[in-house]
Prior knowledge:
alpha+beta, Alpha-Beta Plaits, 2 domains, five-stranded antiparallel beta sheet, three-stranded mixed beta sheet, elongated, Putative transcriptional regulator, contains C-terminal CBS domains, CBS domain, Diverse_CBS-Domain, CBS_dom
Amino acid sequence: MIVRNWMSTKxxxxxxxxxxxxxxSLLMQHNSSILPxxxxxxxxxxxxxxxxxxxxxxxxxKPDMRNIPEAVLQQKVDTIMCRSIIAVPPExxxxxxxxxxxxxxxxxxxxxxxxxxxxxxxxxxxxxxAFTEASGVTSMGILFGFLVEDREDCINDVLKVLHRHDARxxxxxxxxxxxxxxxxxxxxxCFHIDNRSIQELRDELANTAKLILVIDRSKGIQxxxx
Length: 226
């Protein structure tokens, strides 16, 4: 998954000579979590909700102008913006962008081309949407979860069983987090399975690998195994 396919290309920016009040108005009007600051066509800073909350005496999750002194509202945005610009190129993967946003604890960042010009914004929400689509959950289907040994051919036997039942694969994910040493979790979402053969398929999979879950919301199936 590439950033340019998931970023927002409708970019709202503020000029370095604009006021703090104008920046807050833009964030509120467009329900944005990040506002790039431009000067001569280049991004020179960023404003986020965190920057604006520092100006207030009370806590709040959304930017507004209450409890911010009028003198501060009339200041230029360069007095409050973050000058350390965190950005990614459009060729970055969504995974890389997600890792950066999590590590820096920021809601999003600009996407800059090779000329340093802003071409989009990628946010945590965009990344979450990409991962949700990649998981196949939006197309429903049935999800099988396994605990398998961490070896190259660990998935082959499972796939052979699914192929025998003409299952169409939608997504395959593996996860090492919280798995016992030498093992990993394997999740496979598929569809086009004959309802009459689900029990037979479940039994075959359980005999092939350690089956830990079977979920199909459309059929009310949610089974967890120890």
